[in-house]
Amino acid sequence: MGISLHEAITIISSDIARLLLESILAGFEDYFNKVDEESRAICSATTRANFINDHMIYHARDKMKNHPDVRFITRRGRTHLIIGESLEIKLKKLNHNRRPSNILTQEVRDYNDQIPLKPPKQLEFQDMLNPIANLIAGYQMNSLKTGVEAVYVVCPQGSLNRWEWKLDFAAKPIMIPEHEQIIEPREPKVVVPKNKLVNKINQ
Question: Can you give the residue ranges of every domain in the chain?
Answer without folding.
Answer: 5-202
